[in-house]
User: Fold these one by one.
Assistant:
Number 1:
Amino acid sequence: MKKHDPEYFRDVIVPFIKSKMEKSLVDHYLLGDHAKVVEHESTSLLSKDLNALEMCLLTDSLVRLGHGDRAKQFAANLKSLCKRDY
């Protein structure tokens, strides 16, 4: 929605997300608050509580904030989660 209809996202979705009492990692990411996204790293017990999408968003936020080494660690964790034996 953010890219498909940026005006709707800005005028409707952003105010809704901002009004939420408890914002999720995804909410912070959609608002562009990457510092808040990265705060979820410490509260998620080293990513054990994050799903694959949240790990991708966290990795992207780490890169945007200049924490490349930590981003590589999360990317490696994500890769190991996605690895399957066929």
Number 2:
Amino acid sequence: MPTAWPSRIGTPAICQSGEHSHQGPLRRGHRGLKYALVLLAQHCAWHRGFGDTGLKQAYYRCLHRHGPTPATVALARHLCDVILAMLRDGTDFTPQQPVA
């Protein structure tokens, strides 16, 4: 499975050098997969089951800094990385239970 899988789908590539970080555009890739990832990102951002995975916290951190659209795209990229790791390792997604 290629390591450039998220960028081939169309989520932006992340270019980092030192303290600078830049995300590329959303122009390339499969339109249907991008749409599905964005819908999944919106679902994860608004539903309770994903609160303790770190995904929701990353979404809200980006939301307050950059706004709703970049936050949704960043979460979609995060989810794409999680899906790639699940396919690579052959595991299922199990959200962590809250500690009481």
Number 3:
Amino acid sequence: MGVLTPLFRLPFLPIQGVVKIGEIVRDQAEGESHDPATVRRQLEDAEAARASGEASDADVARMQEEAVGRLVTPAGGEPRLPEGNEPRPPAGDERRLAVSNRPRRTGRRGNRS
């Protein structure tokens, strides 16, 4: 069976090659967008646009938020939090957790044999 396996895989080699090239391009693009030098350049461009009057303060704030967000968020992942800053559950979850920690009532349930 080992001799026939490469023969059956042969038609799929071009597809596997295209997928591999796509993965390489994706990784390269993510690496460049999360590069601190790229983010610094975008922040400098935003400040230059504000100084020349091409962008309003709201536009510059949005551009800065997007640029810094790429530094904080790893490629394809959740935002990183500084050490010691664990996310807090929403207010509704805190109440639900408090309720679930109450002692349970004990008593007869009316089990009939």
